[in-house]
Amino acid sequence: MYPTDAEAAAEARAVVKDADRKHVFHSWSAQELIDPLAVAGAEGSYFWDYDGNRYLDFSSALVYTNIGYQHPKVVAAVQEQAGRLCTLAPGFAVDVRSEAARLIAERTPGDLDKVFFTNGGAEAVENAVRMARLHTGRPKVLSAYRSYHGATAAAINLTGDARRFGNDSATAGVVHFWGPYPYRSPFWSASEAEECERALRHLEDTVAFEGPASVAAIVLETVGGAPGVLVHPEGYLAGVRELCDRHGIVFILDEVMVGFGRTGKWFAAEHWGVTPDLITFAKGVNSGYVPLGGVAISGAIAETFATRPYPGGLTYSGHVLACAAAVATINVMEEEDVVGRSARTGAELLGPGLRALAERHPSVGEVRGLGTFWALELVRDRKTREPLVPYNATGADNAPMAEFAAACKKGGLWPLTAGNRIHLAPPCTIAPEDVARGLEILDAALSVADAHTTG
Fold first, then answer.
1. pLDDT for 290
2. CB 380, CB 387: distance < 8 Å
3. 382 alpha-carbon distance from chain centroid
4. Relative to the CA of 421, which of 53, 307, 379, 449 has its CA 20 to 30 Å away?
5. Coil, strand, or helix at residue 159?
6. Sign of CA dihedral 290, 295, 297, 303
7. Gap between the Cα atoms of 317 and 117, Å rounded
8. For the chain, first and last CA: distance in Å?
9. pLDDT at residue 2, rounded to an integer
């Protein structure tokens, strides 16, 4: 029970905040410059603070509460599993771990029928890269500049965005390339088809000049999440698949953010009919209720380790509580048609609603997305496409986005902002009336961004 009396609530908030500020070290932050909101509870598409302020969560925490907060069937499954068996070493065969792997393998494309469990997405990427290097005997891995793959050693070097800067060892065997981005084309393209063609040619040249025989893998986010919900143009992923096949390169798709219904498919690769050699996943597999991630592995790569030991492992690989949450989540998604609901929400509500906002607000340069995963790119001038704030802006340079985010929160919408964009990723189960409410709040907040436009 959370305190209902105002005085008791204020006291509870103060205790939580005091302990947080004294002892919790937060990610990606200057510790003395942040003021985390003290959250008292959450349910469905909402969470609330100790003062009773409710926020419609258009971030799904960090794009992972695909079935919303506190789904009773998943909570019950975790409780039941805890009463039966809380934990067991990863070397044993356990019913719930086996069932989670089976349910995941049934939904992955092609013959990705083996699952190596991790604690989260970054570890999944680490192990996928390790598998690719061991499978091919090659050292180099290619990834896009506009990308995010996690904060562990190899994953942060694969990452292309600014979070890499303070961590880049320059010794990780990673080569970056430019992926397609029609709105801000690095190839001066005039159409999506031209962007696709030129991006593939650039990638092919990069492989050629790095030496195809030295490239173990190409790693791509199926839809670029942190870089701005970048949806690849038709034909691009198929072209990368062909390039990998031609040179014996392992094709890794990072679906940590977009897997399990987020884009209106179980896996986003289904939109383009492409099957990679490895898929990394986490987040939506159990809506983040207990940390879990993994790598779905093709038959050819699994065969590499049939009689040769795989030199990697994790103490909590396939933790039984996390797997119980995954089994319950996947079953809920089937029972409640969560994947279909995500697709319909995007096609019928979010997509049309966001495009209507773009027509009214000069600060919106582009709308893009799939399912329950969208972004608005905010600009100062639609004609020049000058971003509302500069790349990697902080402090005063980032003031327009900070003001916009504050307006969202004041209206009761919790946003996920990155650079000059707002990413819109509500739970895949969000009700139509909550979509409408979120769009109404966003409409008002965009007026704040409009005040900074010049064209």
1. 98
2. yes
3. 27
4. 53
5. coil
6. negative
7. 5
8. 52
9. 56
